[in-house]
Amino acid sequence: MLRVENLVAAYDGIKALRGVSIELGPGEFAAVIGANGAGKSTLLNTVSGLVRPVSGKVLLDGKMVAGLPAYQIARRGLLQVPEGRMIMGNLTVRENILLGSLTRNGRTPAHDLDGILDLFPRLRERMQQVAGTMSGGEQQMLAIARALMGAPKVLLLDEPSLGLSPLMADLVFTALSKLHASGLAILLIEQNVHRALEVAQRAYVMEQGRIVQEGSSRELINDARLIEHYLGGAVAAA
Q1: 113 is a domain residue
Q2: What's the average model confidence in pLDDT over 6-12?
Q3: CB 65 within 8 A of CB 156
Q4: Which domain holds residue 81?
Q5: In a domain, 115, yes or no
Q6: Which of 2, 37, 138, 156 is the residue whose CA sits 20 to 30 A from 45?
Q7: From CA 205, how far away is CA 212, in angstroms rounded?
């Protein structure tokens, strides 16, 4: 479904990605984990077209999308829920969700509006509320709902639990597990390493712009040496 090959990206001449290669199969749930500054967000932003790669390939359904404008990549079904949510705060919840449909490009969504609201009941209660007045957790649900309206082939999520209460984070991760169960391919970047490894099937570990290890989530969550070396004991502390 998604293949990234030897991806290189740079800011002001400094390489942030150094030949990253990852794969995501149809319906697979994978996570990218690593310490702050490892290049995780740059990876998602380059895959989604927000950062133009220096070199390398990004293929969606076997077709090259690397180097295309972000809106064209989104219209092909590679949709990102960005860090910070980036909702339209002056629009209502309903208007924000419906904006997502602009990227469908003829695709039939796996989740219609009612299905999305079943996934996020809090949004159903707030359809006429101005989005900027909602809590951070509710805004995160809204950002995911907006992406789902775009009928994604692959859903990219950048730090979805950042700044959320434990309760709201639980609701978000429960929704992601349900989306995976429905067959949606998901690539997750998440600061809460323990939760990321709980919900994902497989994970990549990044360090200084490179993939340094990959494996099943079960293997990685039980690898104390790896957690201590690359993540500073983040799993143990979670």
Answers
A1: no
A2: 91
A3: no
A4: 2-85+152-237
A5: no
A6: 138
A7: 6
187/2 Cα distance (integer angstroms)? 9
Maximum pairwise Cα distance, the chain: 50
d(CA 127, CA 22): 38
Task: Count the Cβ atoms, other than its own, within 10 Å of residue 228.
Answer: 13
At which residue do the structure tokens 């001449």 appear?
13
- Region 164-176: mean pLDDT is 91
* Cα(37)–Cα(58) distance, integer angstroms: 22
On whether residue 163 sits in a domain, the answer given is: yes
- Residues 6 or more apart from 209 whose CB is under 8 A from it? 15, 16, 17, 18, 20, 38, 39, 42
Sign of CA dihedral 62, 103, 98, 95: positive
Contacts of 191 by beta carbon, 8 Å cutoff, 6+ apart? 159, 161, 162
24: in domain: yes
Q: How many residues does the chain have?
A: 238
Edge-to-edge strand ranges of the sheet holding 202-207: 78-81, 154-158, 185-189, 29-34, 202-207, 210-216
Do 184 and 108 form a contact (C-beta atoms < 8 A)? no
Number of domains making up the chain:
1
Local structure of 66: helix, strand or coil:
coil
Q: For 57-79, write each residue's pLDDT tens digit.
A: 999 999 999 999 999 999 999 99
Note the pLDDT tens digit of each residue in 46-58: 999 999 999 999 9
Give the model's pLDDT for residue 231. Answer: 57
pLDDT confidence bin for 236, thresholds 50/70/90: very low
Residue 65 is part of a domain; what is its CATH number?
Answer: 3.40.50.300
